[in-house]
TrEMBL record, chain A:
The keyword Membrane does not apply. It holds the Pfam family UQ_con. It comes from the Eukaryota. InterPro entries: Ub_conjugating_enzyme, UBC, UBQ-conjugating_enzyme/RWD. The keyword Disulfide bond does not apply. Residues 2-152 form the UBC core domain. Keywords: Ubl conjugation pathway. This is Ubiquitin-conjugating enzyme/RWD-like protein. Gene3D superfamilies: Ubiquitin Conjugating Enzyme (3.10.110.10).
Automatic annotation (TrEMBL), chain B:
InterPro entries: Ariadne, ARIH1-like_UBL, E3_UB_ligase_RBR, IBR_dom, TRIAD_supradom, Znf_C3HC4_RING-type, Znf_RING, Znf_RING/FYVE/PHD. It is an enzyme of class 2 (transferase). The lineage of its organism: Eukaryota, Fungi, Dikarya, Ascomycota, Pezizomycotina. Pfam families: Ariadne, IBR, IBR_1, UBA_ARI1, zf-C3HC4. This is RBR-type E3 ubiquitin transferase. PANTHER family: RBR FAMILY RING FINGER AND IBR DOMAIN-CONTAINING (PTHR11685). Keywords: Metal-binding, Repeat, Transferase, Ubl conjugation pathway, Zinc, Zinc-finger. It catalyses: [E2 ubiquitin-conjugating enzyme]-S-ubiquitinyl-L-cysteine + [acceptor protein]-L-lysine = [E2 ubiquitin-conjugating enzyme]-L-cysteine + [acceptor protein]-N(6)-ubiquitinyl-L-lysine. GO terms for biological process: protein ubiquitination. Residues 18-50 have a biased composition (Acidic residues). The keyword Zinc-finger applies.
Amino acid sequence: MLVAKRLQKELVKLNEHTPPGITIVSTENFQEWLMDIEVLDGNPLYQGEKYRLKFVFSGSYPIEPPEVTFVKDATHPIPMHPHIYSNGIICLDLLDRQGWSPVHNVESVCMSLQSMLTGNTKNERPPGDDDFVRRNTQRPRDISFLFHDNSV
Amino acid sequence: MNMDSDEEFNSNSNVDMSSDEGFLDQDMESDVSLGDDYELEASDDEEPDIGFDTQDKDVKPRKEAYQVDFQVLSPADIQASQDEQIDEVSAILGQPPQNSAILLRYARWNKERLIEAYMDKQDEVLEAAGLGSVATEQPPRFERVPNFMCDICCEEGDQLDTFAMKCGHRFCADCYTHYLVSKITDEGEAARIKCPGDGCNRIVDSKSLDFLVPPAVKGRYRELLTRTYVDDKENLRWCPAPNCEFAVDCPVKRKELFRIVPTVMCECKHTFCFGCSLADHLPAPCVLVKKWLKKCEDDSETANWISANTKECPRCHSTIEKNGGCNHMTCRKCRHEFCWMCMGVWAEHGTSWYNCNRFEERSGAEARDAQARSRQSLERYLHYYNRYANHEQSAKLDKDIYIKTERKMTQLQSASGMSWIEVQFLEQASQALQQCRQTLKWTYAFAYYLKRNNLTEIFEDNQKDLELSVENLSEMFEKPTDQLQGKKVEIMDRTSYCNKRRIILLNDTAENLKKGVWEFNVEMTG
Ligand SMILES: [Zn+2]
Ligand SMILES: [Zn+2]
Ligand SMILES: [Zn+2]
Ligand SMILES: [Zn+2]
């Protein structure tokens, strides 16, 4: 099974070396991992916070992208960002089937999200956040986002 | 290939090869059209001698102004027309058919522009289509590379079979295959699958694909290529009916949709608009249909009160329920006859001065202030929406009643020994009702956007005539079943009268649309 083989290798590599600001939280099985990320460059929007990411892998990972969302609990808020909905769903082309390449992995997704936060200066949610969060019962993979603005 | 006998059939097998798709980013005039004689038919007002099979000479059907030429294609026809074009391009370019197929798919089946571009800059075109020098010289093959590590499975080793296209993004054979199979079977991609490398836009050519994927997946791959073929050609469109495998070839172009409502009928009998794939929406052009549906969706709450199936008798106020399609209502209690749509006295509907279908604009002082104007605009919308929704609803009720009647007729038939053929007239009547109500429904959306001029009165008269003929036929279905056989001639007469009125209305609207003499109160842009 490709997914197990691949995640096993990713885990070995991550245990050897984890990039700064990225922490492994739980990797018990090959269906779901939790990772924490921090923004290290002192961006006042995210200073002192840790954000928790949930990775859900389908049987087709890494051919298909994992489902990646921010999860909220007592110590982990959802980061403020015009591409992150307040329920933790992320609008990022990398995580969409069209934008995904099987060359990506958990580490590169974490790093992409770190840099997406680092470069942001807008203390706001995506337009229509309230509506989206109220109505959305879909899983992230079934939503087609429009990636008209990848500069943010 | 088979067509409904009512439709004109053009036996000319010449297929229009043109497409409006931009090719190689060249902004070229998009009117390239090979099947010129084919195209002209759609826009010409008179075409006395179009090629029909000689044996059909005596029964040559007349093409009505609202009809367009089209041809229904089976999966085998679609395959054959692809093969034909591939062979043609092969002969011109001197490339083997396999390569011509790749080139044509790359060029989105725009043969003229492909040939032109190929003559102009052969190497660039070959390269871009995935047929660059390396690919043409040697067939795709696996390689073993020293110190290789696959970025997908993270497997490493000198003995691993690996594959890369010209872009050089190399992965192990297993992962490459896995990736392609997933794209084809899970995501339904075929003609434009990209290299798995991050950010690489190189399209996986069919040769590499054939080399890498197992035979079982190739069938699905071919199917998807045919999908893309039809999607890429402006003159082709899939029949939108569920599970239907046929496509329709029609020369009407996207830019002509303001002047023509190209309505086609598939082998499976589904009638739909070639322009937008929605069910038959004659006489309204696609752009108005789109606006209307959007408006109805946005205003659904305002219009909700209309959907009620019960109303009060305007005379005695007892509750009346509508259980048939006919709008000619008779109150059970007081025998008052009225029209369900406008609640007016029915007897007046046959007279020329009565207008159930026309919205009377109030003029002068009444509509002066803003509030009155906004009320008037809502009333105007509701007037048309009411009639639109009513015909939709009535069509359903007509159908229900027909199904019930048919069941009873079958029982009657087996009891009395009548032959099946003798009840066919009911089916024809029911079909005419469905079709005419469908048309009437859209005349109201059309009328909503129509600006009043000297032509609208003729349109409204036609609409009224069709409406009356439909109600006259519809009420026959409410007769007791055992009387229907005796009404056969009458029902058949009313059926053909309905069909005739429909054709008159559609020809009038189509001719004026083609001439561009209708005026609309909205922008006719998508
Ligand atoms: Zn591999
Ligand atoms: Zn590549
Ligand atoms: Zn069909
Ligand atoms: Zn249409």
